[in-house]
């Protein structure tokens, strides 16, 4: 039996507050709602997920959870951006609030003390999304050889490079 995404979406929307389910389950609920809202093109789900992010940010979170929450918040803004800027004309608008919010959230996650505590996959997702959004905005990323991300062999696939010299790597915005 397959799971109907609309049913999961509706169950999450019916939750209301996340205060009773604990932080790990709340983060899982937020991430799932953001993904489903994007897949189903439901702005009400994005709005709820952003409200949940605000609610959860008022609780005691570990540094890792703070970075993860910023990543989820960026994804919610990214889904809203995709929904609002579908036409060629709107994609070229100079001011794109959703794009700005997404970049701010990803930068906050990257600069957070919790970034290093995320899994290599989580760090790659943040770096990849940030790089993609900066490219969309017309900026680029330079990889420089000073320490920030640790052993780059774990991150090689997200940096898109097959041959890196030994030593730590850092994504630096220019």
Describe this structure in words.
- By secondary structure, the chain is mainly alpha-helical.
- The chain is built from eight helices and two strands.
- The protein has a two-stranded antiparallel sheet with strand order 1-2.
- The relative contact order is 0.10.
Keywords for this entry:
single chain, 174 residues, mainly alpha, two-stranded antiparallel ribbon, globular
Quick structural overview:
The chain is mainly α and 174 residues long.
The total of beta strands comes to 2
Q: Would you tell me the structural class of the helices and strands?
A: mainly alpha
Strand order of the largest sheet: 1-2
Q: What low-confidence regions span 5 or more consecutive residues with pLDDT below 50?
A: 140-148, 161-174
**Sheet of most strands:** 2 strands, antiparallel
Helix content: 55-70%
Shape: globular
**Strand coverage percent:** under 5%
On the 0-100 scale, what is the average pLDDT?
82
Tally of helical segments:
8
Task: Report the span from N to C terminus.
Answer: 49 Å
- The Cα radius of gyration reads 17 Å
Question: What is the quaternary state of this protein?
Answer: single chain
């Amino acid at each position: 039996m397959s799971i109907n995404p609309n049913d999961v979406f509706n169950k999450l929307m019916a939750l209301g507050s996340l205060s009773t389910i604990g932080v790990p389950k709340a983060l899982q609920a937020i991430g799932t709602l953001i993904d489903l809202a994007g897949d189903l093109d439901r702005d009400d789900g994005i709005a709820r997920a952003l409200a949940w992010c605000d609610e959860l940010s008022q609780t005691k979170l570990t540094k890792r959870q703070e970075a993860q929450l910023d990543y989820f918040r960026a994804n919610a803004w990214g889904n809203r951006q995709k929904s609002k800027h579908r036409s060629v004309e709107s994609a070229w608008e100079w001011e794109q609030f959703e794009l700005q919010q997404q970049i701010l959230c990803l930068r906050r996650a990257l600069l957070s003390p919790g970034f290093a505590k995320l899994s290599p996959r989580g760090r790659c997702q943040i770096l990849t999304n940030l790089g993609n959004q900066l490219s969309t905005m017309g900026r680029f990323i330079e990889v420089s050889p000073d320490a920030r991300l640790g052993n780059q062999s774990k991150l090689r696939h997200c940096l898109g490079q097959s041959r890196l010299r030994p030593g730590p790597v850092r994504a630096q915005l220019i």
